[in-house]
Structures are given as C-alpha cells and as structure tokens.
Amino acid sequence: MSDTSTLTAPTTTPSAAPAAASTSPPPHLPRRRELLFGTAFATAGVVMALATLIGTYVATRDATGAAWLEGNNIPLTQPNMQLLTLGMSVVTMQWAVFSINRDDRPHTFLALGVTILLGAAFVNQTTFLYREVGLAMTQPEGPLFYAVTAGHLAMVAAGIAFILLMAFRALGGQFSSRHPDGISAAAVFWYAACALYGVIWFAVYIQK
Amino acid sequence: MALTETRPEADEAANAVADGPQPPSAIERLIGSGDHLTVGRLYVGFGLFFTALAALGLALSGVDGLSDDGLLGLTPALASSSLVALVVMGVMPTLLGLGIYIVPRQVASPAIAFPRAAAFSLWTWLVAGGIFLTGVALDGGIGGPDPEGSRLASLSMGAMMIALSLGSICVATTVLSHRPLGMGLAKVPFFSWSMLVAAPVWILTFASATAHVALAQIAQFDAAGIAAGFETGIAWFLRVPSIYMIAIPVLGIAADVVAVAAGRRIRSYGVVQGLIAAYAIASFGAWTQTDRALQTFLFAVVAVLAVLPMLALLGGLGDTLRRGRPALSTALLGSLLAPLLVLGAALAGAMQVIDFAGSGTIWDLQPAMITGAQTVFLVGAAACGAIAGLAHWSRRLWGAPAPEGPGRGGVTAVFLGAGLVATIHLLQAFLARGGESGLDAAAFNAIVAVGALLLALGALSGLAMAVGAARIGVDAPDADDEHAMTLEWYPPGPVLAGTELAGLEVVRSPYPLADLRGDTDEEDDR
Known about the structure:
The structure holds 2 protein chains of 2 kinds. Chain A is mostly helical. In chain A, 69% of the residues lie in helices and 0% in strands. In chain A, helix 5 runs antiparallel to helix 6. The longest helix of chain A is centred in the N-terminal third of the chain and has 31 residues, at 34-64. Chain B is mostly helical. In chain B, helix 3 runs parallel beside helix 5 and helix 7 packs antiparallel against helix 9 (248-262).
C-alpha cells in the first residue's frame, strides 16, 4: 500500500503557491513498489509464454520419438556452463539488492556490473552453442527449438537492458534504501529468466 | 534592405518562437495523452464500436449461410474471426477501458500506474485492431484461405492480446500500489478488486495464446497451418473455463452497482471478494489446451463449478437488494442480466463435461457449436456488464447521467441477441450430435443473423448512451450521486451532499463516503 498518499484535498491555490513554497512539504517519493508489482505481472506473462513454448516442445518431441534431433548433436558443455553462469548471476544480482538496501552504492554498481557481464557471457555462449548444434530453421525441430531457446535468449537480453537502465537510474540517485524498487524489480525479472533456463536446460538440453 | 539584415517577417517568426512552442492541437493532445481519463474513454468508445462491428460480422456470416454456396460470397472465416474480434476487440477492451478510467478514481489516485504504458497499450491495440480487420478483408482472418491475410490477422491478434495484458498490468498495479491510507485489499471497491484478480488471469491466458501466435510466425506456416495452429493452440481461450475470464470484471461492476442502487452496504464484504477471486481462479484455463485435459476430472470441476461463486454472488446481491428500495435503472438491469448469461455459459460447459465423461464421448457434440455457445453467452454477459458500468459511472465518465432509453434498450438487446445466438448454437450442438442433421442450416443461420444483429444494435445503443451522456455533459453542471459509497465520487468532484470530504484522511471501511455521511445499514434497517 502507498505510504505517501492521504485523502486530504490540496489546500494550496496557484496564487498562494509562491508564498507557501518555503513551508511546502518535501517532494514525495514515487509510489512504493509500483515498479516491482508491474514487473512481477509482466514477468509472469513472459514466463507463461515461454512455459507454453517449452510444453509444446516437449509434447512435439515426445510425439516424434527417436527421430527428434537425430541429425544434430547438442553438446552439454555449453549448456552446463550457461547454467553455471546464470547461477552465479543470481548471487551477484542478490548482492546488488542487498547493497542498495544498505545504501552501499559502490557495491551496488559493482554487483550490477558483474551481473551484466555474466548475462553477456550467457548470450555469447548461446550464440556459440547455436553454431555447434547447426540446426536449420527448415528442419522440423528448428522452429520449436529456436522459439524456446531464442525466446529465452531475448528474455535474458531484455533483463540485461533492464539492469542497465536501473543501474543508470541508480547512478542518478533515484534508488536508495528508502526506494530500492528499480533494483528489486530488475532482480525479479532476472531471477525468473535464470529459473526458466534451469527448466530449458533440463527439458531441451539434458532430455534432448 | 541589405541581405545581412533580417527580414521583418523573420523577426516575427523569431518572436513567435521566443514566445514559446505552439500549443499542441487537439489531435496531438489526444494521441500524446497519458491521462487515464482520456485513455479509458477511448478504449470504451472504440471497444463498443468494435463490439458492434464484430457482431455485425457475425450477422453477415449468418446471412451468407442462408445459401449453401454463400449468399453474399463472404469469406468462410468471417464467423470465427467475428467471435475472436468480439472478445479481443470488443468486450474485453471496453471493460479494460472502464477499469483504466474508474479504478484509479476508486483508489483515490490522481493517475494510473505507468500512464505511458496505458496509452501505449491503447494505441497498440487500436492499430493492431485495424490490421486484424485488414487481414479479414483480405480473405484471411481466423481460418481464412489467404496466407498473407491469415498471417496478418494472427499476428495482430497476438499484438492485441499483448496490448490488453499491458493495460491490465497498469490497472492491477494501480490497485496494489496507489491505494490511500487505510484502504487494505479487504477494503478495495469490488470493481477494482475484480480488475485486480482478472489481471493475472488475462495476462497468463493471453501470454500462453501469444506464444502459439509467435510459433506460427517463426515456423512461417501457410494459411492451413495457421488455421490448424489456431485450433490446437489458441482456440481453447474461447471455451470454458478460459472464456469465463472475460466476465470477471462484470462481477465487480454488479456488486458496486447493487450496493448503490439499494443504498445498502453489501454484507460479508470479504466473502464476496472471495467469491469473485474464486470465479477468477476457476476461469484460468491455459492448462486445457490439449484434448486430453478435457477428459480430466479437474476440467469437469472447473467447467461446471465456476458457476457456484456466481450463484453465491447472486444470492448476496439479492439479499442487498431486498434490504433496499432499488429502482430498475440501466445499471441495475445490466448487472442482473449479465449473470444469467454466465449461467447459460455454465450450462454449455456442463453439456461439454457430460459429453466427455468416461471414455470417448457420450453425445459426440459438435465442438464448434458448443464453443460458439460458450463464447457468445459470455460476450453477452461482458457487454451487458460493460453497459451497466458505463451507465453507473456515466457522471464520472462523461459528466452527466446516462440516458435511460438507449441504456436499457442496449442492455436488453444485448441480452436477447447474445442469448439467442448462444442458445441456437447450444441447441444445434445437441440436435446435431453424433452426426445427426440437426436444425436446417438456413434456419440456424437466419436465427444467428437476427441474434447477432440484436447484439450489434445493443452495442450501438450502449455507444449512443455514452455519446448522449457526453454531449449533455459538456454543458451540464457538476453532478454527483448522493448514494455514492466509494471513492470514485470524491476527487475532483464537487462536495457530496454537504459532506466535508477534506476531513476524510484514512479509509476505515469499504464504503468511505457512506461513512462520511454517517450512513449505517443498522439505522436504515430499523
């Protein structure tokens, strides 16, 4: 619930505003948790879309049987490293949330920077994996494989952009222990992206 | 004059620039506005218009079906496209627009959360709606033969779903984070509560459907592939239990309308909130995408038992009406007729459940007919509820009371039209079971055409009601409802019946304005 608003009608008229300027209340902080709630709803939608794609992938693969990805080899080294990379990024992201809640700004920026770096490493590993697999869109498995994995890649890329934006806003002094919402919201989105990769890792790469 | 001197007209132009930028034109203000009042009104206006247009499309498809080879030569996809349009271009945007307008007022917020996102959702939806209509006109649409038209319609349908999800995120976040002091979730007005519980269901449902839209685009399906993809991956949102979701806000509207109409607080506020939430949970149907899911016990439970919260809510509303002396207004009429249409959809759902009981099917009902019945029943319920809400909040939306004639006419026409179309689908599903011939195709299509035309007229009447109120509202003095109970009637409206509103600093009950007036049901009931 908002902790900044009351129902009291404003009493200051425009003509009286200059005179009242010296006694006017301090500027309100933005609504508490607004960005957090909005991000949570949006994240739920993205997760649902990707979960639907993963479900469709698994159902189609089960229906196809042994012929699924018969002509392609999916190595496990990259997927495992990707999982490890995102796992580490969860820790650094939580480090950022922990730091901003204690007004430890240097550590906040350091943690956000490392998270972005790990995210970029994930993107790099995915593109490398695509080259290794060599799956063409014209193959029956192609559209579903890329819908799932590239859809998640897009989510990670969006997460990096989100973190970058929030880092700049934090640099501008918009977030602090009193109002850490932007960092927390980016963290919610990031955690969801990491958790989804765990599902993809198992359903697509391990089970093949 | 030397060339180095400035021309006099250039001086004037420079002075004009120095005076500041030109004020934006009305169109620029409209397009650039993030004001929830403007966005909400536009959603409502276009939503009602598209409801009428989609219903007209359904009527035309009925007329076309009067002859075996197509009386008008229209695309065979017009009927299915019209059903989809009724949902994502018609009734849902209308209800969402009402939410974007009213919900911030109900929680005493001067603005909606993420106003630019709300405006973005409106314009994305509107442009995507135009593309959808273009796709249908190109002989595409949902299940149409033209590949480009089908692709356009599919893609724009996904865009509309994303836009509606974005709008509902703004509304739900407003309820969660913009509430005033003292207004816990247990004291949120019913309409705001219903929008809050509807938002997650809408977001998750549309996200799942949009994933299939994306898959069809990635796979570059042809027209037949897109049609098959719609049937297997998207059509589930047009049948129970998913289609129940379009009527979730109607429950909130009905509860708010009945309280004001009766002049009584609704007893057991938390229980009624729980009933609305239970209905919303039951309407989540993304898990019923496969045929196998339709033969599970859980499907039987949610498809039929979703009606229990509705029946219990009707009981609560009836009790409130019994304690007051309500006049039969447009708002009350719509609020009472809408649940009846939801019950009709539940009946259609029950028939489907019975059909799927055990192994195989009992009656072998036609899936298209039974789904059509469920969709149209709930479209009618949502349209009735939307017109009821527009009439109820007309003074807030347009500045003047809604004209009762078009309002009542609209609600009645929607009820009869949707009821007729849905009932004939239900009847045909049953009569044509197991490969029987059923009703004569011409008779069936004629009844569909008449019912859909009534539905279109009802939506147009609702639009006429809104336009009429808006025209009166331009010159009308500020007017308030002396029976108002919730905060949408507070800022920036005039003082309510002599009440000193500025004294209200903390919300202490779900009906703060009734608290201010000192209204208590105990006194009234004596």
